[in-house]
Amino acid sequence: MPIVQIQVLEGRDKQQIARLIASVTEAVVESLEVRPEQVRVIVSEVPPTHWGVGGVTKEKQS
């Protein structure tokens, strides 16, 4: 059973997350030749205060 974990910044709507899950599931099904029911996709949203790039939080970059 493939498990895919994805971390994204907070702020995307439910439809975007649903499309992401569907697209990733499809890619795993095709790549690993498994059934969609076997694929698990976990999307974790991270606040900009907890995401750093180049030593600075995304909150401060905006």
Quick structural overview:
With 62 residues, the chain is an alpha+beta fold.
Considering the chains and any ligands shown, give keywords for the structure:
62 residues; alpha+beta; two-stranded parallel ribbon
Fold and architecture overview:
The chain is of the alpha+beta class and 62 residues long. It is built from two helices and four strands. It has helices spanning 14-32, 58-61; strands spanning 3-9, 40-46, 52-53, 56-57. The strands form two sheets. It has a two-stranded parallel sheet. A two-stranded antiparallel sheet has the order 3-4. The model has no long low-confidence stretch (mean pLDDT 96). The active site is at 2 (proton acceptor). Residues 2-60 form the 4-oxalocrotonate tautomerase-like domain. It is an enzyme of class 5 (isomerase). Its EC number is 5.3.2.-.
Helices, strands, pairings?
Elements: E1 3-9, H1 14-32, E2 40-46, E3 52-53, E4 56-57, H2 58-61
Parallel strand pairs: 1-2
Antiparallel strand pairs: 3-4
Protein name: Tautomerase
InterPro entries: 4-OT, 4-OT-like_dom, Tautomerase/MIF_sf
Enzyme class: isomerase
